[in-house]
Design goal:
Structural class: alpha/beta
Number of helices: 18
Radius of gyration: 27 Å
Family: Belongs to the aldehyde dehydrogenase family.
Protein name: Aldehyde dehydrogenase
Distance between the termini: 62 Å
Low-confidence stretches: 1-11
Active site: 229
Oligomer: single chain
Mean pLDDT: 94
Number of strands: 16
Largest sheet: 7 strands, mixed
Keywords: Oxidoreductase
Shape: globular
Domain Aldehyde dehydrogenase: 39-456
Length: 502
């Protein structure tokens, strides 16, 4: 692996991003982009490789910083998500960038007739990437890799909530990158709102719908296109014939990933009414099995800060006061929730109704709401009457009920029988719909998000389109137009007849 000292020679003098303002960094990168032109494949691959090295070379320090930021977060989780988890997509971008960036000839038959058509994928210029605190590196480095594959420069702003982790990245980034290529923006440069005001060529944001709306509004003032990767209350539905034991285990486990602080965690679940008691008992049993201790358990992730701790505890208390039933896993001798460690026990709520805050708000913590249903249409109606979630879970076979659920709802993705498995495919997009986001990335989808699909035509036709479309219009032009109208009317009527026969 290339060492930082060697990389420093490759990227020039070691200059920290904090030596410049955000606006200056944007101007520096834009000037470099214009000066150097569209980067070749070797340059793009080199940048993605250095981005990977930045993470891999400093992985232990990063994991320690993440643990300090959260208060309690297992090293294995940080390594799996914020280090190793990035490598799948970064490696894919590196392997395919050269192929994706090539100009493509389309409609070749028409080219032989004198009308050549080509498609380019050109870089946009300077991309701004705003990351969240729950996976502060994965959700900034993966889109940054896509932006590099597409030939862009990157201004990266990891979350200020995970300040220690951001500080580690800001400290080491100059060992791997010139600020002309990648500049790490910290709270010393200004707020996230200030960053959203930059006139970059594309703004990429991951976070809450509320902040995402603000980012989109600021970007719109400068006509900056945005990709928003947001959250939402992700539903799970257990089929009437599903294996309840398997359903309870995977949903219970999925709810507790990163202490429930994942935009893809299931937030609530619909279970056949006759199996409600069995399901809830098995979820509680699973949590008891996995967490014999919590308060001193280094593998039980803490809530990120006091604000969120208070908010989640408040959601539980509000639901209980309004009639919901609370089921919590609290090991013997422990007093939970605990404000000092910011640990909230795994909590299952039943009897939740409209008017309770937990029924509307995304929990983003170790709380699962369970609803009974008699007919699948009840679950579909509930899901469809709420904002579209980022993902949806199904426990059961790939059957007609699964199709009914998919056809009757909208979500960024659907995962059956396991947690967020679409993340491991390089052929599927990651993104939301409606309130859970707009746009997508991962694999080629990321490359295309940060590229401009640019049409190119070369005409050697014997007729001039410009001449045909400009006055004066002759009797011959009128006959041609009328003839075309009759032709298209004929084809349209033919299509109508085919539809009637179906």
């Amino acid at each position: 692996m290339t060492k930082p000292a060697e990389l420093r020679t490759a990227v020039g003098d070691r200059v920290s991003s904090e030596a410049h303002t955000m606006t200056e960094l944007l101007e520096i990168q834009r000037a470099a982009f214009l000066r150097d032109g569209i980067p070749d494949a070797k340059t793009r691959i080199d940048r993605i490789t250095r981005l990977s090295s930045l993470l891999l070379d400093n992985s232990e320090e990063i994991a320690q910083a993440l643990e300090a930021d959260f208060g309690s977060r297992p090293r294995e989780l940080s390594m799996a998500t914020d280090i190793v988890g990035c490598m799948i997509d970064l490696t894919h971008q590196r392997r395919h960038a050269e192929k994706w960036m090539k100009e493509v000839n389309v409609a070749k038959g028409q080219g032989l007739a004198g009308f050549k058509q080509r498609l380019r994928h050109d870089p946009l210029g300077v991309v701004g990437i705003m990351g969240p605190w729950n996976f502060p590196l994965n959700l900034t480095f993966v889109p940054a890799g896509s932006a590099f594959a597409a030939g862009n420069r990157v201004l990266m702003r990891p979350s200020s909530v995970t300040a220690r982790t951001t500080e580690v990245i800001a400290k080491h980034a100059p060992d791997y990158f010139s600020i002309e290529e990648l500049a790490v923006i910290t709270s010393k440069h200004g707020s996230g709102s200030d960053f959203a005001k930059l006139k970059v060529d594309h703004m990429f944001f991951t976070g809450s719908p509320e902040v995402g709306s603000s980012v989109a509004q600021e970007a719109a003032k400068n006509l900056v296109p945005v990709t928003l990767e947001l959250g939402g209350k992700n539903p799970a539905v257990v089929d009437v014939d599903a294996d309840i034991d398997k359903a309870a285990k995977f949903i219970a486990d999925a709810r507790l990933v990163n202490g429930g602080q994942v935009c893809l965690c299931p937030d609530y679940v619909f279970v056949p009414e006759a199996k409600l008691g069995e399901f809830t008992d098995k979820v509680i049993a699973r949590w008891k099995e996995k967490f014999p201790t919590i308060r001193s358990n280094a593998e039980y992730t803490s809530t990120i800060n006091e604000k969120n701790f208070t908010r989640i505890v408040g959601l539980i208390e509000d639901a209980e006061q309004l009639g919901a039933t609370k089921h919590q896993v609290i090991p013997a001798g422990e007093s939970l929730p605990d404000a000092e460690t910011r640990k909230i026990p795994p909590t299952l709520l039943t009897g939740v109704k409209a008017g309770m805050k937990v029924e509307e708000d995304e929990v983003f913590g170790p709380v699962l709401t369970v609803y009974p249903y008699r007919d699948l249409s009840e679950a579909i109606s509930h899901i469809s009457s709420h904002p579209h979630p980022l993902t949806m879970y199904w426990s059961g076979d790939d059957n007609e009920n699964f199709k009914k659920l998919a056809d009757g709802t909208r979500s960024g993705s659907i995962n059956a029988n396991d947690f967020a498995t679409h993340l491991f495919s390089l052929e599927l997009p990651f993104g939301g719909v409606g309130k859970s986001g707009m746009g997508n990335y991962h694999g080629r989808f990321g490359f295309e998000t940060f590229s401009h699909a640019r049409a190119v035509t070369v005409s050697t036709l014997p007729v001039s389109v410009a001449e045909l479309m400009s006055p004066p219009f002759t009797a011959s032009d009128k006959r041609m137009t009328n003839g075309q109208l009759k032709m298209w009317a004929f084809f349209n009527n033919k299509a109508i007849k085919k539809l009637k026969k179906r």
